[in-house]
Design brief:
The chain is an alpha/beta fold. The protein is built from eight helices and 14 strands. The chain has a nine-stranded mixed β-sheet with strand order 3-4-2-5-1-6-7-8-14, with helices on both faces. A five-stranded mixed β-sheet has the order 9-13-12-10-11. The N and C termini lie far apart (46 Å).
């Protein structure tokens, strides 16, 4: 909602009772799980939750990919679990394979598996996904893409990713603002990762674009800088701005709802002769009907050593304590 990222407007106070209700529900859930009044699953493997306290795209998936790459370099065997937003499978838990589509698993799990070729399990109940991953896959640490508020799954490390520019908007709880939980929740997490901007006492992740790649998988180089663009992510403007910093001129840019299930009809509005650039998350849903002049822009997250070193040390201690 655009008004979430503006100074508080007078009419939004009519939403305050609903925000107060949501805050109360979240507080009761958190209290009950923390005091073990509600049942939760504890894995024998270390569980690292990567989430946020606000709605919208904050850069969690690039962070998860980068974190897994670091773990692999350090000799770990990470696996990822996800809710699978935008996907619907005939059965759960769903182990993502090379033939799994975005319609089945959701775009982010397919993207992560394609990038890393590691076990990725999807289940609306993340605790079930974690149990399946631990019992059936060769992994020694579980990374959950989103799920900070999924307290039915116990976690050993909590990492919150924050949008560096939009931050917390008007700092109100939904629906009055973008927050899922109050800002005080940040005092209980292990790490805050700030995406794209430097803020005091927070680690900074910088996103680095790579060369565009063809959606259909063919190897080629995009030489035309006058393009069309589309994005179905939580914050499309960030993607369009990134394209501009890469010296692309955007002839037409179209935003779709986050996790939008693309069809061929969605692309009839674009000129067929002009290159079309989309996000990598969008591309995994369009390979079946991709045209030769459709491209995607891979994005890599660069994590600071000031975060990596203490995180690896903490993870090592947790793993040893669970052995």
């Amino acid at each position: 909602m655009p008004f979430w990222y503006q100074p508080t407007l007078w009419w939004t106070w009519f939403l305050f009772p609903l925000s107060l209700l949501m805050r109360g529900i979240n507080a009761v859930r958190y209290f009950c799980y923390r005091n073990k009044w509600l049942k939760s699953y504890q894995s024998t493997l270390p569980v690292v939750v990567v989430g946020n306290i606000s709605v919208g795209g904050n850069g969690k998936t690039p962070f998860v990919i980068s974190l897994c790459e670091i773990l692999i370099e350090e000799g770990y065997k990470p696996g990822v679990i996800s809710r699978g937003y935008g996907g619907k499978s005939l059965h759960y838990p769903l182990l993502v394979e090379s033939s799994t589509t975005g319609k089945e698993a959701g775009d982010e799990p397919v993207l992560i598996h394609k990038r890393l070729n590691i076990p990725v399990v999807v289940d609306p109940v993340r605790a079930n996904a974690a149990a399946y991953l631990a019992d059936h896959c060769d992994v020694d640490v579980i990374i959950t893409d989103d799920g900070l508020q999924h307290y039915a799954l116990q976690r050993d490390i909590e990492i919150v990713v924050v949008d560096g520019k939009r931050r917390y908007g008007n700092q109100h709880i939904m629906p009055m603002g973008p927050l899922r939980e109050p800002l005080s929740r940040l005092k209980t997490v292990d790490y805050i990762i700030n995406n794209g901007e430097v803020h005091h006492d927070e680690f900074t992740m910088l996103l680095t674009p790579s060369d565009c790649k063809r959606v259909d998988g063919e190897l080629a180089v995009l030489s035309d800088t006058n393009v069309n663009a589309c994005a179905a992510i939580g914050y499309p403007r960030r993607f369009f701005d990134t394209l501009k910093t890469q010296n692309f001129t955007l002839n037409k840019q179209v935003s779709f709802a986050d996790h939008h299930a693309y069809t061929e009809n969605d692309f009839k509005q674009f000129e067929s002769t002009r290159p079309l650039i989309m996000t990598e998350k969008d591309a995994v849903k369009c390979t079946a009907f991709a045209q030769q002049n459709w491209w995607y822009l891979p994005i890599d997250g660069n994590l600071p050593r000031s975060f990596i070193q203490p995180f690896l040390e903490q993870l090592k201690q947790i793993k040893e304590s669970k052995c």
